[in-house]
Amino acid sequence: MVRSDARENRVRILAVAREAFTEDGATSMNQIAQRAGVGAGTLYRNFPTRETLVLAVYQDEVERIIATVPVLLAEMPPLEALRHWTTGLVEAMRRKHGLGDALSPTAHQAITEQTYGPVVAAITELFDAGKKDGSIRADADPGDFLQLTGALWRAASSPVDRAPRMLALILDGLRPQPPR
Fold first, then answer.
1. Structurally, how many domains does the chain consist of?
2. DSSP of 58-109, one letter per residue?
3. Are 42 and 33 a contacting pair, CB within 8 Å?
4. CB 152 within 8 A of CB 166
């Protein structure tokens, strides 16, 4: 059983690291320890390497985004829930891209493989709700949707943020088509 103070330290370190890496991907481990109010030993006991910390930050972010699906579906229609959820996912993808510089190619591949299934499961939950109420076409594929969202973070990073318009086009393509 992990002591509550140790658990609180880990949570605080992750929160500080998320903020620090978003501001500057080159933030050092010592700077993170100082900002979190913990000693270097505590930081390294929880996260033995910088890469371990970066991976934990990204994994935590993905888990937080996935956890919003039931809340969004309870508060709004499925297609609108998908719009809000995808916007959060795009933000996370943008941050992951910024963190990517701190990851080896092997670690980058590992985190992508580790998060793909849970992200597709979250999209599937949103799609199933939309298929059930008729707002999302029956042949819509969560994997295809995830592939398309990959272009959104790049568009959001350009001088003119085209991501909202592009997302609207993607979502329009999910609507059931009238018979021809």
1. 2
2. HHHHHHHHHHHHHHHHHHS-HHHHHHHHHHHHHHHHHHHHHHGGGS-HHHHH
3. yes
4. yes
Residue 180 falls within a domain, yes or no? no
61 plus 42 within the same structural domain: no
SS3 of residue 176 by DSSP:
coil
Q: Write down the residue that tokens 């910088």 correspond to.
A: 50
Predicted confidence (pLDDT) per residue in 82-110, tens digit: 999 999 888 877 766 556 656 677 777 87
Contact 133, 78 (CB under 8 A): yes
Domain limits at 120? 52-174
The model carries a pTM of 0.81
C-alpha of 128 from chain center: 20
> Are 88 and 43 members of one domain?
no
Residue 76, CA atoms < 13 Å, CB-side half-sphere: 12
In angstroms, rounded to a whole number, what is the distance separating the alpha carbons of residues 5 and 47? Answer: 16
Q: Which CATH number do you get for residue 160?
A: 1.10.357.10
